[in-house]
Each structure stands twice: as C-alpha cells, then as structure tokens.
Amino acid sequence: MTLKKETISFNFSQGVETKTDNKQLPIGQFEVLNNSVFTKGGLLQKRNGYDKLEDLPESASYLTVFKENLTALKDSLQAYVDATDRWVNKGVLKPVELDTSAVVRSNTNKSQADSVLSDSGLLMTVYTDQSAANLANPVYKYVVTDALTTQNIVAPQVIPSDPTYGTPRVFLLNNYFIIVYSTFVSGNYQLQYVAVSIDNPSIAMAPVIITTSYTPSAQIAFDGTVLNDNLYLAWNGGAASGIKMAYLTQALSLSSTVIRDASHSATLVSMAVSEDSSQVWVNYYDSVTKNAFALATDSQLNSILTPSPTWTNADILNLTSTVSTGFNKVFAEINNAYSFNAAVPTHYIEVAFVNLLGLFAGPNVLVRSLGLMSEAFLYDGVSYFIAVYVSPYQSTYFLINENGKVIAELAYGNATGYALHGLSTVTVDGNEISFVYLKRDLVQPPNTNTNPPAGSQVVGVYSQSGINLAKIRFTTENMDTLEAADSLLITGGITWAYDGYEPNEQGFFLYPDSVEATTSATGGLITAGQYFYKVTYEWTDNQGNAFKSAPSLPITVTTTGGASLNTIHIPTLRLTYKTANPVKIVVYRYSVAQPIYYQVSSVSMPLLNDTTVDFLDFPDDSSDADILGRNILYTNGGVLENIGPPALDDIFLFDDRVFGITSEDKRLLWYSQKILQDTPVEFSDQLTLYIAPNSGAQGSTGPLTCGFQMDDKLILFNASGMSYINGTGPDSTGANSQYSEPIFITSTVGCSNSKSIILTPMGLMFEFASQSGNQIWLLGRDLTTVFLGAPVSGLTQEATVQSSDNIPGTNSVRFTLDSGITLNYDTFYGQWDTFSNTNAVSSILYEGLHTYINSRSEIYQETPNKYLDGDRPVLINFKTGWINLAGLQGYQRAYYFYLLGTYFSPHKLIVQVAYDYNSAPVQQSIISPDNFAGTYGQGNYGSQSPYGGPGNLEQWKIFFERQRCMAFQVTVQEIFDPAYGTVAGKGFTLSGINCQVAIKKGWRPISASHAVG
C-alpha cells in the first residue's frame, strides 16, 4: 500500500512545558529547553554568557546594590569598586532570623524559666510560678509543648518540692528530660531530679535524690552540662565540703560524688564542656569572699585543672562560660550603679579567660548597661549569650556576641528585669538556637509627659510575666534589603542600615533614660525659676542625614539664685555600632519664662558619646537669652518620637514610607514617617498597623509573610492568601491617617517567599508554596490570579526561588532556583526556558545587567554578545515532546526531518532520536558544520557565498533509523570540542524542524506477553 507522505513543521515559538504529560505535548513545545532566549518569534537562539567578577575577600551569600554600587552580604558588608575591580570590606554584619511564640501565659507571675529542646521537636520548660492560693509562695512547674506549633503536649505540672531557695533547671539526656531542682527535706536542703521520657512525656518518674548535702543561694548554686551521654552536675556543698560533682548516665545511674574544691563554697555555679568533648569545666563564685574560680576535670571527674582564680573582690550577680580553642571563656555580670545615684542600677558584663595551664587573662569589661539572661553558647566557634537591659520604660533583651556587639533584640520595653534566679539554657540545633524568656505585655502605655513638660511621669501598666519561646537562625536565607533615604536597610535580628561608610543599627537601640540633674546656686547665668530638661542621642550618617532618638523623659530643676549652674547627669549610649563616627548627646531646656525646648548643649563643640563610661555630665550655665533662637527639639508641636524599629522579616516601600513585618508579631506592620529630602527613615512605635487573620480556601491565611507595592495598593501576602491596603498615611503627629482597612483578595494562593516577588508589566509574579509543591503565580493588576508557572511546575515543585529580577531592555523575568537552574520567562511571548551553569543563590541588577552570586561566593555578570559563563561555554540543548501524529498509540512512518538555522560561529551538535515513549535514545548523529571552512578566497572577496564560502545558512537532513513507530522524540545538544575547532561563541540559531512522515492504519502491534483478557 502506498502511503501518503505529509510534511509536519514546527517552529520554536513555544517554550518548555513540564505540566503536561510529555507523551501529549503539542507540537512545538519542549520537554527541555536550555540556554536560549526568545528575542524573535519562532527563533531559537543562545543566551548571553556571564563574566566572572573579582573574587570576594570574604564569603557572601546575598547580593544587592546601594547607590548603583554592587554590595555583597553575609558576615560582613563588602562593596565593589568598579574603577579598580576590587572589593572593600565595609564592616561586620551578622544577619539572623527571629521568631517568637507564647509558651506559658496565666494570671500568675513567672519569675524564672529554663528550657531544652529535643531532637523530635518537643520543648520542656520548667519555671517558678506564683501559687494561686498564696502569691507569696512560689511553686516549681514544668510544661511540654510542640516547639513548631507551641501547642501543649503536657499541661503545666507541679514539681514536688519546697522551693524556699533555688530554681529548677532542665537538661536533655539521651531520651529523657532531666529536671534538677533544690528542695527542703527534714531540715536539710537537697538536690533532686525528676526524669520525664520524651517518648511518653505525660508521665514523670518519681523524684531521685542527687545529694543531701547542698547549700543553696538566692541565685543558683548548681549547674549541669551534657557530655558523651552523661549529665555532669556540680553544686555547692557548703563551707565544709566545697564544690562537689557527680554525673548521671543515660541509663539514669548516678555516679559517686567527688569533691573538687574543698576550700571554697559557691553562690553561683556555671558549667561548660570543651569542643573536643574531653573536658568538663566548672566556674563558681563566692559572694562572701567576692572571689571566682575555675576548675576542670576529665569525663571521669578526675582533676585536670585545680581551682584557679578568675575574679577577685568582684560583686558578681551571674556567671556563664564556654570552652573553645583550649580556653575557658567566662562571662560575669557585675553589679554597678551610676555614681551620681546609687539607687539606679546599671549592670555590666566582663569576660575572663583561663586555660588548662591555669594561665589567666582579664577580666575586661565587655559591654556596659546589660545583665546576663542566658547561659553562653558557641556557634561556629564564636561565643554568644542573651543579655537584658533594664529600665522602667525600655527593658529589652539582646543577643550579644563575644565582642560585645548586638546581633538581635527582642521584647523591646517588655523584658521583666535582671535574672535573679538563674540563667536560661540555650539549645543549639544546627544553625538555629532556641531559648525561653520572660515577657510582660503592655496593658497601658507609659505617660512620658511630652507636652506639657511639667507633671509626673508614670511607667506603663503591664500584665503578669509570661514565658515566650524565641528561635534565632544564623542565616541570610530570608534576608531582605531596601534602599531608602540614602541608606540601605537590611533585615535581621536588628534592622541594619548602611550609609556607604559602615553598617550600623537603624536609628538607636535605646533613648536616654535615668537622666538626672543637680543644681548649684553659683557658677552660671541661670536665674531663679523652674527648668525642664530633655536629652536626645543624635547622629549624622555618611549621607548627611541627621538621626535623632526619642527624647528622655523631662526632668525638673528649681533654681533659687540668680547665677545658678545646673549639672545634667546623662547615661551614655553603650549599645551602638555608631562608634567610628560617634553619637552626640544633645540637651534641650524649657522654662516657664521660655516655654520651648531649645538646645543648650553646644553645636560647634558637641558632647560626644563614650561607650567606655556609664554616664557623662553636662554643665548648663546659659541664660534664657543665650539659648533663644537655637535648635528646637524636634517633637515640638506634637511630632511623634523616633523609636528604632524592631527586628523585621520583610521590608518594602509604599506611600513614600518604609513598611516592615515585625519578627515578633508577624501580623503587625511598622511603618515610617514620610521620607523627605535630606532626612533619614524615621520609625515610631505609634506608627503600626495590625493586620487581622482572614479565612482563605485552606482555612486561616495565617500571619503576614511579605509585601509589595503594586500601583496604588500595598499587597500583603500570607502563606495562602492576599489582601491590600491603599490610601495615604498620617501626618508627622500620627493623626489623619487615610489608610484603608485590609481588603481581602479572593484567591486560593499566597506567598511566603519575598525574594520571589517581582513586578512585571502584567502585575506581580510570585512563588506559592502549595501542598503539591512550589508554583509561580501572577497577581494581575485587576487582582485576578493566574498559574503562570504551570509549564515549569515540574522544575519548581521541589525547588525554591532564591531571587527574581526583571531584566531592563528585554522581556525577560528571571528566577534563580536552589536546584541550580535559572528560569527565564518572556513576558512578550509568554514562554519559559531555563539557564544552566548558574547555581545562583542570590541575584540583582547591577549596571542594568543580571548579576548573581553562587554557593562558592563567586560573582558573575551577564555580558552581552559573549557566550562564556566564566570559562565554561554556553551550550544550547533542547528535547521535543513525543511526536505522535496518529494518536497516542497510532502507527506512523517517519522518514527524515530537517533542521533549519543560521550559522554564526564554529560549533558541533549531537542529534539523538528516541522511539515509542522509551526515553533512552537509540539513534545518534553528530553534525559538524563546514560553514567556517571556505573552499577558497579570503578577505573582502571570494569568502562569502556564492563565490566560494558555503554562507551562513545551516540546514541538515537527518534520516530516522526506525521509520515505523508510534512516536519519536528529538534531542539536540550543542557540545564543545576545541580539538574540532569549535569556539565558545554564538554558534547558531534555529528556525524550526520539518518532518516527513506518513500515517498508517491500525495500531502498532503489541507482544502477546503484554496482552490480557
């Protein structure tokens, strides 16, 4: 029978398609399409290559730009100098992510808490609680929660004890939570433990006595640490028996007790183990003699370092330590007070070092104005601890590194005070740390008495102290940056700001508090009367923007003489990165006779901050006439006070303001004042929006995850929903806001990945984490949603978008994935393809060109008309869908097909053909174009067709080796073969494939072994 031959043509006007079954792809769509771009309809052509830029001196994992200058971030901020092709380190940066959640809240007060997290995700928290029957009598309790959801697994249980002295601690020993606590039995204090199985945490074992010889203290005179599946314990045995030690095995067998220091008792005990798990260190302090010591043992409690002094004649309140690189690093909280007022506490933290030879260094002041809140821990060889700043108005917790620098802040204004009953344990799991902390919620705001200046100031009204869980991850994975007001804002455990000089905190961690004043009847020009003072911290960045803190609460001074001098005692700003360019302390004065706060401190000779001292004195001897016309306090007229922003998860612009989602309450937005010329970004704790949860297709949409401006709307994303606000915000006093209520966008999708959001002419493209995998969607300008990434869902399903960019001058939108590929979407043709060789972890537009950094901290920039990725050639490859002209299992005869293209530079192609839905190719041909090898003629004459060269037409005919088939699939792969003479160039373009085929009647035969019935 003579078959009627047909010519089937398909061009390259369609992109890659992974959503559809590859056996049923329409002709013209590709199962694989790599390293091409759609700049002309129906034409397949090679993408540009990427040139490698100068190597970074330090590793980085995030790229951004500041003032059109390429900037790389990780543990430092590095700026690229294009003129010299060099990178410059601009300062330390430590990005982290912060999450908090409630663990225990009730109508009774919590005075202490400790916790440990198991590998299975169960969190055991032990705490001291007020008794509901007798508030003067606290009780010990424990609770078990799911650390992921913070749901109670075991409701609060009472630990049988008499907590006259001491507090409970909890440790993780293999498959048990071990609660250690002191109790009073038959006239003696004991240490006991209760074991709770992780597999069945609802049942606690009976209490077991560790020792009947324990001398408690008002702080905590015992500690424990886990080493090699043993829980090592050290405690104060009293003046007669000193420091005792024992260990508990994973089988809950208690070793014999040994005395390691019979000469000293201890009111504080802290333990640590060495990195090589061979040493157990004990640090302890005796409040009677005011001396501290360190000793070390091996795993069998044999002494390897006898007691060595670390502090002498010191008033230590808390003690903690880490062991690294052979040194026991000890951190001590020192009791202190301002010299002008002993009633105002201002603790500080010192550090000392001792090694196994007893060699000692320190102690040295590490950081002022803080007390210890947690035990110290090691991450990546660096010591960290949680510290607390205490004041009536802005008590706050800070994560501090071993250099005394702030890495994160939390519970601003809601911390409970100094840790008087022991330090919390920090659990380290990979790059995440977790710990519990006490928090009191603000019920009624404080009266800071801004206007008028006279009257009494009242601290806020707070709830009873509850317990929160904090998780801090050391990562740049979800870092976000935003350039605004000549600064680069960077999210993290604190909101960082980079001004072109060095990174520091945005605004100020704290404003001046505990300011006081004294007066002298002589020495000045101040007449008799009542005067009020306010103090601010002020700082000018490298761009000339003047930052001003919230002013201190007003203090009053009444003078009686005609030539008085007032001395203002001002606490310095001891927590700041602003040290190379110091902060100035500015004093303002108001009087009944002159009722405006004018600056009284000098403009030309400012009072500069000094982080090495606790306070500075400012003598005010100016008359009212002297200060008239000077700078006025910026809050005059009811302008809101500037408060440094909290840790933010995501930042974005809207209404000429910076918005951010707070890390501690992910339904709360902070936003700035309107950004004006020559002014910094200014936040206030009174400029916030609470976005209540809504109900989406999959239940509650959950907390806010990210946001982005589209036209006149601020789109707010949840994991499974979206809403928007519009309008204009309040004036500088916080009044007259026209922001709308959140308007829910009817949709079944949302976004949890801020790095995936990109504005295109069609609207916002973003990644949606669905139950079936990650997907790329479009929110159109009409607020409808389209599954735009359906064709590449097979590539995104198990991959995460790491960055997204809209390439100027093209129709390309690019998404880098953690799978190592880059997705390229052409907004004009509506087609997808992929780029290989990238392995990008972050990308940005620099000089209008796509620029990325890979996992090796190498940076590459797109280079037009160059086809090398560093030293690797860019090679096109594609695979068609299965071509089945007679239906899925019809019978066809395929004779040959043509490739039609244009030659540009020497290249080599491998063409493979697979048959009958078996993906393994059974036919392979190598194409070696001869266009570059002219037969004769050189120069301007004779080198081009028709005079001797073959021209630039590239056309090839490939015969099918297996003509009778159900379907066939063509793969074309460009290869690089220098031996043949190929170069890393543009190579070729392809316009289409023409196939000569014929359709037969019936079905392709199937073997009997595959037939049933």
Secondary-structure content class = mainly beta
Which percent range describes the beta-strand content? over 45%
How many H/I helical runs? 2
How far is the first residue's CA from the last residue's CA?
32 Å
Number of strands: 86
Helical amount among residues, as a percent range? under 10%
Low-confidence stretches: 933-947
Average pLDDT, all residues: 90
CATH class of the largest domain: Mainly Beta
| Radius of gyration, whole Å | 35 Å
- CATH architecture heading of the largest domain: 7 Propeller
What is the assigned CATH homologous superfamily of the largest domain?
YVTN repeat-like/Quinoprotein amine dehydrogenase
Shape: globular
- What is the CATH fold-level name of the largest domain? Methylamine Dehydrogenase, Chain H
- Largest sheet report: 7 strands, antiparallel
Number of domains: 4
Q: Could you characterize the architecture of this molecule?
A:
This protein is 1% helix and 50% strand. It has 1013 residues and is mainly β. It folds into four domains: 5-47 and 877-928 and 954-1003, Jelly Rolls, CATH 2.60.120; 51-69 and 642-837, 6 Propeller (Neuraminidase), CATH 2.120.10; 98-443 and 457-474, YVTN repeat-like/Quinoprotein amine dehydrogenase (Methylamine Dehydrogenase, Chain H); 512-627, no CATH class. The strands form 22 sheets. Strands 1, 3, 4, 80, 83, 84 and 86 form a seven-stranded antiparallel sheet that branches. Strands 48, 49, 50, 52, 53 and 54 form a six-stranded antiparallel sheet that branches. It has a five-stranded antiparallel sheet with strand order 2-79-85-81-82, with no helix packed on it. β74 and β75 form a beta hairpin.
